[in-house]
TrEMBL record:
<feature type="transmembrane region" description="Helical">
    <location>
        <begin position="687"/>
        <end position="706"/>
    </location>
</feature>
<dbReference type="Pfam" id="PF01032">
    <property type="entry name" value="FecCD"/>
</dbReference>
<feature type="transmembrane region" description="Helical">
    <location>
        <begin position="219"/>
        <end position="240"/>
    </location>
</feature>
<comment type="similarity">
    <text>Belongs to the binding-protein-dependent transport system permease family. FecCD subfamily.</text>
</comment>
<dbReference type="InterPro" id="IPR037294">
    <property type="entry name" value="ABC_BtuC-like"/>
</dbReference>
<feature type="transmembrane region" description="Helical">
    <location>
        <begin position="261"/>
        <end position="278"/>
    </location>
</feature>
<keyword id="KW-0472">Membrane</keyword>
<feature type="transmembrane region" description="Helical">
    <location>
        <begin position="31"/>
        <end position="52"/>
    </location>
</feature>
<feature type="transmembrane region" description="Helical">
    <location>
        <begin position="616"/>
        <end position="645"/>
    </location>
</feature>
<keyword id="KW-0813">Transport</keyword>
<feature type="transmembrane region" description="Helical">
    <location>
        <begin position="92"/>
        <end position="111"/>
    </location>
</feature>
<feature type="transmembrane region" description="Helical">
    <location>
        <begin position="123"/>
        <end position="143"/>
    </location>
</feature>
<feature type="transmembrane region" description="Helical">
    <location>
        <begin position="499"/>
        <end position="518"/>
    </location>
</feature>
<feature type="transmembrane region" description="Helical">
    <location>
        <begin position="177"/>
        <end position="199"/>
    </location>
</feature>
<feature type="transmembrane region" description="Helical">
    <location>
        <begin position="392"/>
        <end position="417"/>
    </location>
</feature>
<dbReference type="GO" id="GO:0033214">
    <property type="term" value="P:siderophore-iron import into cell"/>
</dbReference>
<feature type="transmembrane region" description="Helical">
    <location>
        <begin position="657"/>
        <end position="675"/>
    </location>
</feature>
Length: 712
């Protein structure tokens, strides 16, 4: 160990302190680690027995096992045997295998990146695999199980490769990798949602599977994939010695003869194979791969052997299985007590694991030390040669473009109109059919423009506070929480627009308060704000999935449509909250424009100049949250506008907020207006929600932005 540490120091690598053996003998250390793993195994066994007792019938585990091994072919024994082989055992075995696979995959990814926040979720592996399988179902491609797993492997591998290629391994800046992976996962999830809506019949039932469900019909969906899981696990064990050396740093490992690139490639392939197999079996189970190895790392401070890769793999497998089986047992017991056994079996297990993972991520964020300065923040270079005439010209051009697009939005749809029709409508002389059409379209066009403007301003403020061009209101969980609030109001109360609007407002504001209180306190940092926001977003999405999966098909369709971000049915009265919040925000932002310019540079400059950093950050975050809330109330959940529009504005007119914010608002309005018109026209008389159109257009721009950010 001393030689390894000396080699790390000699190479200049940021070596991690090697795990120190306890003062006792190696045999005692091994016995302590083994005892810890045995204890986890015993607990897993007890939970498995409880798991077998849960279901719609009151059959005991003993009766099920007896029926399996009994030669009796009577009707009662046959029914018990069918219950065991087709329902209880597949659910249990699936939970054990998937939990272990995800735990091992997370352990491998964290070792590969030397990043404690890496997992199949934060590297978008699960999102990529989910999209690949959903696309196959949407386009009617029927594949055998192993071919489906290969397709999921391809999707997950491409997603992880993109994240790592664009964000780097970020062992000194864990938030960069998490942020890039989260935004890529958001883009992939949005494309998946678009496919689910466009191909509703061919993808029927995939929404529940997409939440991560252990409802397996027999062992046939598990057994062919077991060799994949076993082979990938064996591959990781063979890489264990080199991985232990990699924990000292890439430079140190290279100097000691380890081919770092080949090792990282092997770890990535094995981890993606495990994740793809898990997604193919039961759908994406959120954050198991983050929590299990993180808990093992915490235990390693007391049980030193768990710091070694082979022992960490074993512990992560056991804890991953414990998390999945424990979550399934807990949710079924709770729902059984409240709503009965039928609903208890139908609740997706992935909802619970995502909630647990969200809480765990928030705890990690609050415990994380601030990097100090801007080490965790990707700073984009400012454009050169920006003159006053250029700013004025570009601002006027953006305003004219918006006016043209507003006119186009009035003309296009399921019935194409002409400019003369609009003139007659404005003068009150249009035919009745034209009048009805434009009375219906005009508030939709206005809603798209206002929503795009406020989302862009909110995104600009979030990027200023976090000094990160990849951040937007969606990252803070505001949009997702607003959507969750609207779904709660829809399912628990009634389907009125006022009820859903109130629920969306409450959800968005609560999310903003949680983020502000948890990460906006003394000692806060931009990276903490982002991590807490991601945790809040994950929790809100899990609650939304839980509610949608447990309601009737009519409410499901309405909820999915609202979450897609649609202007359908918008009236002039629905625009009042958006317009009022925008008008109230403008004077405050004018007063704070110089302070916003300063806090976008670094933490030190505004303090030197006497700016109250926490106060300006709080004001900007509050305005951003409120603007996002009214946008969700007006048009539902729309992603990427708060990410793309501010960045484009910054490239065009620079960082000064007196120019940056107005141009961002104009570009955001342009983006949503184009998406809304396109969605109303391209498959008329059917319609695509504007939010899904933006979501499909967002990922390509995101990939370019990530590449530009990493290069700079």
């Amino acid at each position: 160990m001393t030689e390894l540490k000396s080699a790390a120091q000699a190479s200049g690598a940021p070596a991690r302190e090697p795990v120190r053996e306890p003062q006792g003998s190696p045999a005692k250390a091994r016995a302590t680690a083994l005892g810890t793993l045995v204890l986890a195994g015993v607990l897993l066994g007890l939970l498995s027995v409880i798991h077998l007792t849960q279901g719609t019938s009151g059959t005991s585990p003993g009766d099920l096992l007896a029926a399996l091994f009994s030669p009796d072919d009577g009707e009662s024994a046959s029914q018990l045997r069918a219950l065991a082989l087709d329902s209880r055992l597949p659910r249990l075995v699936g939970g054990l295998v998937v939990g272990a696979a995800l735990g091992i995959a997370g352990c491998a990814l964290q070792a590969m990146t030397r990043n404690p926040l890496a997992s199949p979720d934060t590297l978008a592996v699960n999102a990529g695999a989910h999209l690949a399988l959903t696309a196959a179902a949407a386009f009617g491609i029927s594949l055998p199980l192993l071919s489906s797993a290969a397709l999921a492997f391809l999707g997950g591998g491409v997603a992880a490769g993109v994240v790592l290629l664009l964000a780097g391994f970020s062992e000194h800046a864990p938030i960069r990798l998490v942020l890039a992976g989260t935004v890529v996962a958001m883009g992939l999830a949005s494309v998946t949602a678009a496919l689910l809506m466009l191909y509703a019949q061919s993808t029927q039932g995939l929404f529940l599977w997409g939440a991560g469900t252990l409802n397996l019909a027999g062992l046939s969906g598990l057994l062919p994939l077991l060799p994949v899981v076993i082979a990938a696990t064996i591959g990781l064990v063979l890489l264990a010695r080199s991985t232990d050396v990699l924990s000292l740093g890439a430079d140190t490992a290279q100097s000691m003869g380890v081919n770092v690139a080949l090792l990282r490639g092997g770890l990535l392939v094995c981890a993606v194979a495990l994740s793809a197999a898990a997604v193919t079996m039961v759908g994406p189970l959120g954050f198991v791969g983050l929590c299990a190895p993180a808990i093992v790392r915490l235990l390693a401070s007391r049980v030193s052997r768990l710091g070694r890769f082979t022992w960490a793999l074993t512990g992560s497998a056991l804890l991953g299985a414990l998390i999945v089986i424990g979550a399934d047992v807990a949710v079924r017991a709770l729902v059984f007590a409240v709503a009965g056994p039928n609903l208890a079996v139908a609740i997706p297990t992935g909802v619970v694991t995502s909630l647990v993972g969200a809480v765990f991520l928030v705890v990690l964020a609050l415990r994380m030390r601030s990097a100090g300065g801007n080490q965790e923040i990707s700073a984009m270079p400012l454009p050169h040669g920006i003159t006053l005439s250029r700013r004025v010209t570009l601002s006027i051009a953006a305003a004219v473009l918006l006016l043209v697009l507003a006119g186009v939005g009035l003309l296009l749809g399921d019935w194409w109109l002409r400019l003369g029709d609009v003139q007659l409508w404005l003068s009150g002389e249009a035919a009745r059919a034209i009048e009805i059409t434009l009375d219906f379209r005009s508030p939709r066009v206005a809603a798209a423009i206002l929503a795009g403007a406020v989302l862009a301003i909110a995104g600009a403020l979030v990027q200023t506070v976090t000094r990160n061009p990849l951040a937007d209101p969606g990252i803070l969980g505001v949009a997702a929480s607003g959507g969750a609030g609207a779904v709660v109001a829809l399912i628990l109360f009634n389907t009125s627009a006022w009820t859903m609007s109130a629920g969306a407002s409450v959800g968005a504001v609560l999310a903003g308060l949680v983020v502000f209180l948890l990460a906006g306190s003394r000692g806060s940092s931009p990276e903490k704000v982002v991590l807490v926001g991601i945790g809040v977003m994950t929790a809100a999405q899990a609650i939304t999935q839980l509610l949608i999966s447990s309601t009737n098909p009519y409410n499901q369709a309405m909820a999915i449509s609202f979450l897609g971000g649609s202007t359908f049915g918008t009236t002039w009265s629905d625009l009042a909250p958006i317009l009022l919040m925008l008008l109230l925000s403008i004077p405050v932002l004018i007063l704070l424009r110089r302070e916003l310019d300063l806090i976008s540079i670094d933490d030190l400059t505004p303090r030197i100049l006497g700016v109250r950093l926490s106060g300006v950050r709080a004001a900007a975050l509050i305005i951003g949250v409120l603007l996002s809330a009214v946008a969700v109330v007006g048009v539902g959940v729309i992603s990427f506008v708060g990410l793309a529009a501010p960045h484009m504005a910054r490239m065009l007119v620079g960082r000064e907020h007196r120019w940056f914010l107005p141009v961002a608002a104009l570009l955001g309005a342009v983006l949503v207006s184009v998406s809304d018109t396109f969605g109303r026209t391209v498959i008329a008389p059917d319609q695509l929600p504007a939010g899904l159109v933006v979501a499909v257009l967002g990922p390509p721009y995101l990939l370019w932005l990530l590449k530009r950010t990493t290069r700079s």
